[in-house]
Amino acid sequence: MKDAQGRGALGGAPATEGTSGRGEWARGALLGGAYVALLVSTSGAVGYARDEGIYFQAAEAYAAWLDALAREPARALGREAIDAAFGVNHEHPPLFKLLFALSWRALGALGWPLGEGLSFRLPGMASAGLAVALLYRWGGRAGGRAAGLGAALAFALVPTTFFHAHLACFDVPIAALWLLTAYAYERSLASPSWPRAALAALAFGLALATKHNSWLLPPALGAHALASLALAPGREAARRRARALGLMALVGPIVLAALWPWLWHDAASRLAEYVGFHRRHDYYNIEFLGTTYFRPPFPRSYAWVMTAASLPLVTMVLAAIGLAAGARALVAAATTARARELASTALLWALGVVVNYAPWLSTETPIFGGTKHWLPAYPFLALFAGVGFARLGLALRASLPPRPFRRLAPAAAALPAFAAPAAETLRAPAWSLSAYAPQVGGTPGAASLGLNRTFWGHTSGAVLDALNALPPGAAVFAHDTGPGAWRMLQREGRLRADLRFVDAPAGADAALYHHEPHMAIVEYAIWVALGTSAPALVRGPDGVPTVLVYQRRR
Amino acid sequence: MRLRRPLALAAWCALALGPLELALHLAAAARAPDELDWARARASVEARRREGDLVVASPRWAEPHARRAFGEGLMPLRDVARPDETGYARALEVAAPGGRDGAVAGWRLLDAWAEGRLSFRLWENPSPERFVFDFVDEVEAGRAEVFWALENGDAADCPFADAAVDAPWGQPGLPARRYVCDEEPRHSVAVTVIDDLGHRPRRCVVTPPPPQPWREVVVRVRGAPPSAGLVAGHMGLPYLYEREGVGAPVELVLRAGGDEIGALRHRDGEGWARFAWPIGGRAAGAGGLSIHVSGAGAEGRPLCWEARLR
């Protein structure tokens, strides 16, 4: 499919590139900024996850080290100071914890105008904004403006992505940096120059310094380099690919090492420990179709079923249409240079999906984190959905009378296409991790199917009113809510400071229970300790009990 | 560019999916009973429930709403964490949309009605069992004798005490009122609630085999009615123990005086296992009825059992 200038586009409409690039970047930035604003405005509804508490602690330790580096660099660079600061949570690379620290420090100087916890969360939210902007630009470049808009919306309006985008964690940041690296790599092939290749290498280094999902980039990009070379063979094409990948291999590890003081001493053994930790990660519990899995073999269907159950149906259909367009582009690859370029792009997107799901083809890969494990695949699914959206708009346009309806076709397509994802995502931010799509009957249907309702203990944020109504000095067993998350709620003044955190129900006046089947014994221990099996409060999305509050029977 | 008619039709169909999904999403939200529905249901349950009726909520995940709204008066712990449904003559099921409780399958439907977003079904058990004596109640009330015993008959008493204690994570909760056998809380004998292999709550007597050199822990009850002809019960370990399938087996023996009535060896993975043994009129003997729990290498494993006479 070609535009008036003879340039093809996956979306069927004219691609948005060349002189309009700056304006398109600005529009993308606007979209990304709007998404960040939305995340900021709904952050209060999303309680702090257990892991966030650990990352708050790590970020504060890093911030103290950065202070020391400014004051006494010689001492700060010594092994003792580095180990004291970076020993905290050293199983994850440092980039976003450093950004959490800088954001916390910078906003702290202003008295944390948005709240202390949000100051930690802001870098993660910004990474979500970056992903939205990139999707708009890349989608637009490959498939026209409608494809860009569709891709941005398809990514932003997924309830579980929306949840993770709130957190001071690494799942959305790594998705954004995976996307950035792939985009920069692709640009370095299309418009080759050393600065572009260097940018791709830098992005890869930042991804390495964010989370270990980045380890999947070399196989994905390597496979793409070889396959796309088959589409457009030639010495120049081979040189471009070799330059991009070679620079990544060189610069990426340097960036990781430069950003991670933990590796500045005893680098080899610490790197081996880091890799070993994730290669032999502990297995935690996760409920799937009524069974709690806690050790291999895990079901191979997990990733696909969870995706199908939690992504908006319309997004998946749009992605399927986009995939079909991508497949057609591959078939047509031999015709023109532009067709080969589009085929190469579609191939890269497809690899972005496949490679990020591939670890779950093994029955040994842990599945405890639900959909967050393969979140870096979602931007690529969104790109295909964007193309599907553009195709749909075009088909609609062609079937309408010329005036005035054709002009309205894009809007007429956008509203029905994204109304459901928007409603599913925005209706209850507090419960977005528990959200399932209508194709499985929503959250009630998923509960009946035995799909995981929650993990990480963040839903304590949904019962703060009940906790704040407890008698003065009450002791609360918070179950899966970590002490770091609890402390942050108190530091922000959202939870009364006199409430005491206790780690067992026996001494508690009140107790929380965050539902996961393997922890049912905790709820029953609460019954025994507090002398009641009748909760004082039951909350959850669409009537599905997710967090319960018990009070001691007097 | 011209698009063929079928493509345009497909585009319109795809677009129609959006509003359809939105409608389904909104419908799912609208169908969900809220706090008010459950609060209103209480009046119906109070009006229709007879003393001894079981109240259940379906789907099973909806039960916390019922426990909150109806309270322990209508859903006491002994019902919520029941060993099974055999002892109930009737059950009142309160169902959220799509809910159906499998526990009453095969029972006779007496009545069904709806109020708001909840449905009500009254069921009758075609053959309820009538129990006349409950071991768990005896232990909970402190009316049992509990002791560790050696092979040679020597014994160490486990006195009934009132001492709050934290249960370690993953262990059954320990009530303050329990039989204390030594300074180790996990050696206590007490009425607790475990999660069975299906995560269902089971109210039972946690009776861990004692440490060496003790051979067994004994729970003896007296005062059983002489008319009782059968002891029926269940035994199992908490889910986190059972699921591993690697723990040492635990043996439970029922004796009347010195006579063995029945014995069962529980292996991990067997779950909440039922037993039933005729006692032939020996329930009210001078020696009482005693449960003996032992197991080589099974020290401290929280075997939990319940037994009733009928």
Offer a quick outline of the entry.
Chain A has helices at residues 21-42, 50-71, 73-76, 79-86, 95-108, 116-143, 145-156, 159-166, 171-190, 194-208, 217-231, 235-259, 267-279, 302-310, 313-331, 337-357, 378-399, 405-426, 442-449, 464-468, 483-491, 520-530; strands spanning 286-288, 291-293, 475-477, 500-502, 510-514, 537-539, 547-551.
Can you walk me through this structure?
The complex is a heterodimer of chains A (554) and B (310). Chain A is mainly alpha-helical and 554 residues long. Chain A is built from 22 helices and 7 strands. Helices cover 60% and strands 5% of the residues of chain A. The termini of chain A are far apart. Chain B is an alpha+beta fold. Chain B has helices spanning 5-31, 35-48, 63-74, 77-80, 135-140, 239-242; strands at residues 54-58, 90-95, 108-115, 118-124, 133-134, 145-149, 155-157, 160-162, 177-179, 190-195, 201-206, 216-221, 230-236, 250-256, 259-266, 273-278, 289-294, 304-309. The chains are: A mainly alpha (554), B alpha+beta (310). At the A-B interface, helix 15, helix 17, helix 18, helix 19 and helix 22 of A face helix 1, helix 3 and strand 10 of B.
Shape of chain A: globular
Q: How large is the radius of gyration of chain B? A: 25 Å
Major pleated sheet of chain A: 5 strands, mixed
Summed up, the helix count of chain A is 22
Cα(first) to Cα(last) distance of chain A is: 74 Å
Estimated helix fraction of chain B: 10-25%
Strand content of chain B: 25-35%
Q: Unreliable segments of chain A (pLDDT under 50, ≥5 consecutive)?
A: 1-7
Question: So how many helices of chain B?
Answer: 6
Largest sheet of chain B: 6 strands, antiparallel
Order of helices and strands of chain A: HHHHHHHHHHHHHEEHHHHHHHEHEEHEE
Tally of strands of chain A: 7
Mean pLDDT of chain B: 94
User: What structural class do the secondary elements of chain A suggest?
Assistant: mainly alpha
Helix content of chain A: 55-70%
Q: Name the chain pair whose interface involves the most residues.
A: A-B, 65 and 65 residues
Q: Could you give the count of β-strands of chain B?
A: 18
The succession of helices and strands of chain B, N to C, reads HHEHHEEEEHEEEEEEEEHEEEEE
Strand order in the largest sheet of chain A? 4-3-5-7-6
- State the oligomer: heterodimer
Using the CA coordinates, give the radius of gyration of chain A.
24 Å
